[in-house]
Write a structure and sequence with these properties.
single chain; TIM Barrel; 2 domains; 12% strand; elongated; 8 strands; 12 helices; alpha/beta; 42% helix; 297 residues
């Protein structure tokens, strides 16, 4: 009679912390990089446990959490507040803080100082900022200070007024050539990765093949080295609009409305709280209380 194989009681091997080097290695091995946005502790913890490579505390916070019309009003203090919450929930994903509007455009010194705050006060691993050649000096200074930088080209939401709205970019030969040049400039300036947003798929693939650093696409096709989505779009939590490039994996907004309406109805009809939701008092103690208060009165 054969002896049964021993059952392993050891826990699964812990996932290694994702770093900027992991990003480069994944590109070299042609393994897609996964990235999502998060703005709070429970969401960060859930996606970290799911195994996402990177979490972006995006300035999309302004629209999907704080209710602004665009990303421009969100402040450094608000971004850092949410960065700290995310950092408490995520233990292995590479954490990237989005530098808000006017935190890096005024001067190179101010850009470097604010980038440092994301690591020092926000517990981030890296920062992201928008723009091409006009940001090269700031990127050189920030990376020179030892802070990893993720670039962002194409539809850059902080330039929404300059771009004339949320419009796809790089659709003409001249605009596409400039985007390719900008990607090369950002790589030379020291970026470890670049987000490509709302650009033609074959242009994004061309850029991805021409530069050695990973590209992360959002509305830029499958030819990028990785993908990112705003989590509130993915979960169906943001109901004002859904960008064309989003795939909804859930419809949490409708589900939340249903749950809230059911709760309201249960309270109004006194179905909630029921006995199982209630703390009871021992009969002897209750009798003692009644005796005490009746005696005093």
């Amino acid at each position: 009679m054969s002896t049964p194989a021993p059952v392993s009681t050891s826990a699964p091997a812990a996932r290694k912390r994702v770093t900027t080097l992991t990003f480069r290695q994944k590109k070299e091995r042609r393994e897609p990089i996964t990235m999502l946005t998060a703005y709070d502790y429970p969401t960060a913890m859930a996606m970290d446990k799911a195994g996402v490579d990177s979490i972006l505390v995006g300035d999309s916070l302004a629209m999907v959490v704080l209710g602004y019309d665009n990303t421009l009003p969100v402040t450094m203090e608000e971004m850092l507040h949410h960065c700290r919450a995310v950092s408490r929930g995520a233990k292995t994903a590479l954490l990237v803080g989005d530098m808000p509007f006017m935190s890096y455009q005024v001067s190179v010194d101010e850009a470097t100082r604010n980038a440092g705050r994301f690591l020092q006060q926000g517990s981030m691993d890296a920062v992201k900022l928008e723009g091409g050649r006009e940001r090269a000096d700031a990127i050189r200074s920030i990376t020179g200070a030892g802070i990893p930088v993720m670039g962002h080209l194409g539809l850059t939401p902080q330039s929404v007024h300059q771009l004339g709205g949320f419009r796809a970019q790089g659709k003409t030969a001249i605009a596409a050539k400039r985007l390719l040049e900008d990607a090369m400039i950002l790589e030379e300036a020291g970026c470890f990765s670049i987000v490509l947003e709302s650009v033609p798929a074959r242009l994004a693939e061309l850029i991805s093949n021409r530069i050695s650093i990973p590209t992360i696409g959002i509305g830029a096709g499958a030819g990028c080295d990785g993908q990112v989505l705003v989590t509130h779009d993915l979960l169906g939590l943001f109901d004002r609009f859904t960008p064309k490039f989003v795939r909804k994996y859930a419809d949490f907004h409708s589900e939340m409305q249903r749950a809230f309406a059911e709760y309201i109805e249960d309270v109004e009809t006194k179905r909630f709280p029921a006995q199982e939701h209630t703390v009871e008092m021992d009969d002897a103690e209750w009798d003692a209380l009644l005796k005490e208060i009746n005696h005093r009165h």
